[in-house]
Amino acid sequence: MNPFEETPPPHQPGNSDKPSSDQESAQPQVPPADYQPDLLPEQLISPQVPVRHQYPPDLQISWSWGHLIVFIAFMLTSLVCVQTIFFASYAPHHRMTAQDLEDYMLSKPQVAIGSTLVVYALLLFFLYVTLAVLRGQPFWRTLGWRKIAPQSSAVPRKPIVYFLGGCLVSLLVFALTSIIKTPENTPIEQVFKFKETAILFIVMAILIAPVAEETLFRGYLYPMFARWFGVIPSIIVTGTLFGLMHGPQLGDAKSLIVIMSMVGIFFTAARARTGSVFASYLMHVGYNSLIGISLLVSTHGFTHVPTSH
Question: Rounded to the nearest 10 degrees, how much is the dihedral formed by the CA atoms of 122, 124, 125, 126?
Answer without folding.
Answer: 90
